[in-house]
Task: inverse folding
């Protein structure tokens, strides 16, 4: 893993767990729909980091569902409404970078295996992690 990935491993896992929840309920969810939600969230945190007004885009269907599942997690990770985590919250810029890295991961996995390859990878990774915790 890269230094960046190591540093934000918990944030990645928290966000991907929220996505996995939507995928578990909607197996028709595609990587492109997740990418659209990540893009909208990255725009939100880029606007915050640069002190520009954020104008929400129009997400529908499963794109909106993924967005709505991830947003409260992202907000918690940046320390809102109150920092209830045992770790320091990340900045808006760090959250933008985390979401950007997740988008890059989607592109990498899509090249390797198609329209749900990222989601299948995340599912496998999260289920492997859960099995490892039970041992």
Result:
């Amino acid at each position: 893993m890269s230094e960046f990935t190591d540093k934000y491993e918990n944030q990645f896992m928290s966000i991907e767990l929220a996505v996995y929840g939507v995928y578990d309920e909607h197996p028709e969810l595609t990587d492109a729909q997740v990418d659209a939600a990540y893009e909208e969230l990255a725009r939100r945190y880029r606007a915050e980091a640069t002190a520009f007004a954020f104008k929400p885009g129009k997400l529908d269907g499963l794109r909106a569902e993924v967005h709505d599942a991830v947003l409260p997690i992202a907000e918690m990770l940046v320390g809102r409404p109150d920092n209830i985590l045992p770790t320091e919250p990340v900045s808006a810029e760090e959250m933008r970078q985390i979401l950007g890295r997740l988008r890059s991961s989607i592109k990498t996995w899509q090249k390797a295996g198609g329209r749900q390859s990222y989601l299948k990878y995340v599912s496998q990774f999260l289920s492997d992690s859960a099995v490892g915790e039970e041992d």
Remarks:
- The helical segments are 3-7, 9-25, 31-49, 61-77, 92-113, 117-134.
- Residues 131-135 have pLDDT under 50 and may be disordered.
- Residues 78 and 89 are 5 Å apart (CA to CA).
- The first helix runs from residue 3 to 7.
